[in-house]
C-alpha cells in the first residue's frame, strides 16, 4: 500500500481491526476508510445559456471537431462562451460530450477549462439518454465500459478528476469498485482494461467499500455485475478474466487479509461461483489468514466459522476443503472439529485426507469428537469401518504418556455411547481396541 502522504487528503489511514500481535497481519495492518468526499473546489460560474454558447452544443451533437475548436478558440479571443452553461438535457458541454462518448471532444473541453464536476456527486440526474448519471463523469464512463473516455477524463483534467472519488451516500462506491462490479453491458476484457487503467493512475485497491470489503473482496467473490456473471456462467467468458483482475489488484498492493473481519478468502469461499482459480492464487500467498484469526477476533452477533476449512465444509464446498488441506501446512485441522463435520456429512474421502495427510496434527480431542459422531451416525458398514480406522489412527498416534488411564477412560466412554445408541458393531470395535491396548 502506498504511503499516506501520496493519497488524496480526503482519505485517512486507520489500523486494521485484526489483532496486531499476530504475525499474519504484519504485511496487512491497514486499509483505507473513505471520509465524506467532495469534488475539488472551482470558481463559481453562471450556468446560464447565452446565444454565443448555443453553437457549441450544436457542434458537440454534430460531432464537428473543427467547429468545436473554432468556438473554443473564439472564447480565448473574448467571445462570451460559457463552458458551464446548461443546454441540451440541462447538461454542460462537457457532460454532453461524455454522455455521447466523444473522447476527443472531451479532451478539447477539458483543455479549455471545463469543470469535470459541474454538479454535486451523489443524486441521480435523469436524462433521456437512459444512462445512469450521479454527477461523476468518470463513473459514468466506467459503467458504460468506455475505456478511452475514462482515460481522457483522468489524464486531461489537470488532476481534478480523482480516481478514488467516493460518495458514502452511494454505499462507498469507488471508480475501481464500479469497474469490477461492471454494472454496464461491457464484456469482461473491457472490465480488465478499466481496472488496469484505474490502478495505473493511482486507484487505491484497499479502500473499504460496500459490504465491508475491498476491491479484492469484490473481485474474488465474483461480484462483477450481471453481464460478466452471465457471461462466465454461460461459458462465453473465461474465468481467467477474474483471475487477471485479482492478479492486478495483488500486484498493486491489495492486502490479502483486509478487512480482517471479512477478508477476500472468506468472500471467495462464500461465493456461489466457481472460485477455485482465485482461491489457488490466494492460497499461494504465505500471509493469507487461513485460520480466520481476524474474523474471530471481531465482535458482534454474527456466527463466525472457526477456520477457512470449517467454513468450506459448512457450506458444502468439499473441493475447496481438499484444496486447503493440500496447500496449507499452517491450517488448523482441530479448531471447529472438521473431522467430525466430515463424518457427519458422510465425506469419507475427506475423512481419510484429514487422517492421512495432516502430518499428525489431529488432536486426541478431534478423534474423540469425530468417533462420537461416527458412532451416533450408524451408517452401515462404511460408517463403522471409519470408526475402526479412526480408532486405529488415534491410538497409533497417541504418545506413550497418553496410553494410560485417560485414554482407557475415553475408550470406555465411547463403548458406553455405542451401547446407548445401539451400534453393536462400533461397540465391538471399541472393545477390541481396549483389549488390544490395555489387557
Structural account:
It contains 22 helices and two strands. Residues 1-29 have low confidence and may be disordered. The chain has a two-stranded antiparallel ribbon. The longest helix is centred in the last third of the chain and has 18 residues, at 380-397. By secondary structure, the protein is an all-alpha fold. It has helices at 54-61, 65-76, 93-99, 103-111, 137-143, 147-155, 175-181, 188-200, 215-220, 226-234, 240-251, 264-270, 276-283, 293-297, 308-314, 318-327, 338-344, 348-356, 364-377, 380-397, 405-420, 424-438; strands at residues 11-15, 30-34. The chain has a domain at 363-438. The chain starts with 10 loop residues before the first strand and ends with a helix. 49% of the residues lie in helices and 2% in strands. The radius of gyration is 30 Å and the shape is rod-shaped.
Keywords:
single chain, 439 residues, mainly alpha, 22 helices, 2% strand
Put the structure in a nutshell:
The protein is mostly helical. The protein has a domain at 363-438. The protein contains 22 helices and 2 strands.
Task: Determine the N-to-C terminus distance.
Answer: 63 Å
Average pLDDT metric: 81
The neighbouring-strand order within the major sheet is: 1-2
In percent, how helical is the residue content?
40-55%
SSE string? EEHHHHHHHHHHHHHHHHHHHHHH
Q: Output the structural class.
A: mainly alpha
Number of strands: 2
Uncertain parts: 1-29
Q: Enumerate how many helices there are, as a single number.
A: 22
Q: Which term fits the overall shape?
A: rod-shaped
The biggest sheet amounts to:
2 strands, antiparallel
Percent of residues in beta strands? under 5%
Rg to the nearest angstrom? 30 Å
Amino acid at each position: 500500500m502506498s504511503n499516506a502522504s501520496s493519497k488524496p487528503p480526503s482519505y485517512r489511514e486507520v489500523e486494521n481491526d485484526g489483532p496486531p500481535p499476530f504475525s499474519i497481519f504484519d504485511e496487512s495492518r491497514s486499509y483505507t476508510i473513505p471520509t465524506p468526499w467532495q469534488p475539488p473546489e472551482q470558481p463559481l460560474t453562471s450556468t446560464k445559456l447565452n446565444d454565443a454558447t448555443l453553437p457549441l452544443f450544436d457542434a458537440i451533437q454534430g460531432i464537428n471537431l473543427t467547429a468545436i475548436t473554432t468556438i473554443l478558440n473564439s472564447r480565448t479571443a473574448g467571445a462570451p462562451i460559457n463552458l458551464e452553461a446548461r443546454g441540451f438535457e440541462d447538461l454542460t458541454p462537457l457532460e454532453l460530450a461524455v454522455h455521447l462518448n466523444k473522447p476527443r471532444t472531451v479532451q478539447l473541453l477539458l483543455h479549455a477549462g471545463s469543470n469535470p464536476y459541474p454538479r454535486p456527486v451523489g443524486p441521480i440526474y435523469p436524462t433521456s439518454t437512459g444512462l445512469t448519471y450521479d454527477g461523476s463523469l468518470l463513473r459514468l464512463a466506467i459503467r458504460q465500459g468506455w475505456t478511452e473516455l475514462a482515460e481522457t477524463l483522468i489524464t486531461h483534467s489537470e488532476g481534478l478528476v480523482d480516481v478514488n472519488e467516493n460518495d458514502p451516500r452511494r454505499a462507498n462506491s469507488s471508480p475501481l469498485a464500479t469497474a469490477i462490479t461492471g454494472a454496464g453491458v461491457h464484456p469482461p476484457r473491457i472490465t480488465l482494461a478499466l481496472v488496469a487503467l484505474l490502478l495505473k493512475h493511482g486507484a487505491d485497491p484497499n479502500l473499504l467499500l460496500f459490504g465491508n470489503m475491498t476491491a479484492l473482496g469484490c473481485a474474488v467473490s465474483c461480484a462483477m455485475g450481471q453481464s460478466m456473471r452471465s457471461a462466465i456462467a454461460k461459458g462465453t467468458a473465461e474465468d481467467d478474466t477474474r483471475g487477471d483482475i485479482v492478479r492486478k489488484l495483488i500486484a498493486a498492493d491489495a492486502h490479502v487479509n483486509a478487512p480482517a473481519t471479512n477478508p477476500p478468502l472468506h468472500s471467495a469461499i462464500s461465493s456461489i461461483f466457481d472460485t477455485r482459480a482465485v482461491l489457488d492464487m490466494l492460497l499461494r500467498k504465505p500471509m493469507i489468514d487461513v485460520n480466520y484469526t481476524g474474523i474471530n477476533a471481531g465482535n458482534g452477533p454474527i456466527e463466525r466459522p472457526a477456520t477457512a476449512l470449517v467454513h468450506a465444509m459448512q457450506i458444502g464446498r468439499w473441493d475447496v476443503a481438499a484444496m486447503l488441506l493440500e496447500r496449507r501446512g499452517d491450517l488448523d485441522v482441530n479448531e471447529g472439529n472438521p473431522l467430525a463435520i466430515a463424518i457427519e456429512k458422510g465425506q469419507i474421502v475427506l475423512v481419510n485426507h484429514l487422517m492421512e495427510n495432516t502430518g499428525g496434527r489431529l488432536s486426541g480431542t478431534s478423534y474423540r469428537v469425530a468417533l462420537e459422531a461416527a458412532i451416533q451416525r450408524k451408517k452401515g458398514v462404511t460408517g463403522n469401518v471409519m470408526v475402526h480406522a479412526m480408532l486405529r489412527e488415534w491410538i497409533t498416534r497417541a504418545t506413550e504418556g497418553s496410553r494410560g488411564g485417560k485414554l482407557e477412560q475415553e475408550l470406555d466412554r465411547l463403548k458406553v455411547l455405542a451401547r446407548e445408541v445401539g451400534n453393536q458393531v462400533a461397540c465391538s470395535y471399541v472393545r477390541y481396541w481396549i483389549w488390544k491396548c490395555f489387557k
